[in-house]
Amino acid sequence: MPLQDADLIARVLVHGDQHAFGELVKRHQSLVRNLLRTWLRGDQARADDLAQETFLKAYRNLRQFSGQAQFSTWLYKIAYNEFRAWARSAREHENIDDIAHEPSEESGQASHDFRHDLNRAMRHLSLEERSAVTCCAMHGMTHQEASDVLGWPLGTVKTHLLRGKEILRNKLAEWSTGG
Questions:
Q1: Nearest to residue 159, comparing CAs of 120, 118, 129?
Q2: Residue 15 and which of 29, 86, 114, 118 are 20 to 30 A apart at CA?
Q3: Three-class SS of residue 40?
Q4: How many Cβ atoms from other residues are within 10 Å of residue 94's Cβ?
C-alpha cells in the first residue's frame, strides 16, 4: 500500500529521507506544472523552471507545512507565489496581462479541437480570472482551497471565477458557431 503524503513528509522531516521527498515530487509535479502552464499561457519552459523552484522551496520550507490543508494545496500556493514573483519581474519589461493576447496566426479555419479553443479563450481572461478558473474549474479545487492557494478572500475567488467562466462561455459559444 503506497504511503500517504503525510507519511512521506514525516520521513523527510524525521529521517531526512530524500527518496520520500522524491516520491512527493513524482506525485505532484504534473499538476504543479499544469497549473503553472495555464497561468503562463502555455509557456512550458518557464512553467518547468518555476515548478523546479516550487519544489526546491517546498523542500527547504517543509517544516513550515502545518498539515491543516492538503500538501497539494500548500504546494500550489508556493507555485502561485513563484508565478507571481516571476510576473512582477516580467512586468518591469512588459505587461504580464498582455502576454499571448496577440492574435495567433491560423490557416483561416477555426480549430474544432476543444482544448485548442479553450486555451485560446483563456487568453482573453485577466490574470486574476485565469488564476481562479485554473484552480477551480480546471484543477477541481474548492473555492476555499483556491482562496488558500491564491491568498485571496473567498468572495474574490468566487467573483473572478464567475467572470472568467462567463467570458469563456461567450468565447467558446462564438467559436462553436463559427464567429
A1: 129
A2: 29
A3: coil
A4: 9
pLDDT per residue as tens digits for the range 94-113: 544 444 333 333 433 333 46
Q: 96: which DSSP letter?
A: G
Q: Which three cell numbers stand for residue 137?
A: 474549474
Q: Residues 6 or more apart from 77 whose CB is under 8 A from it?
A: 148, 149, 150, 151
What is the Cα–Cα distance from 159 to 156, expressed in whole angstroms?
Answer: 5
pLDDT, residue 29, reads 96
Q: What is d(CA 168, CA 95) in angstroms, rounded to the nearest whole number?
A: 22
Cβ–Cβ < 8 Å for 96, 127: yes
3-state SS of 93-155 is CCCHHHCCCCCCCCCCCCCCCHHHHHHHHHCCCCHHHHHHHHHHHHCCCCHHHHHHHHCCCHH
- The rounded distance, in Å, linking the Cα atoms of 41 and 100 is 7
- Distance from C-alpha of 120 to C-alpha of 50, rounded to nearest angstrom: 22
Percent of the chain with pLDDT over 90: 65
Per-residue pLDDT reduced to its tens digit, 111-131: 346 777 787 888 889 989 999
Q: Which amino acid is at 140?
A: G
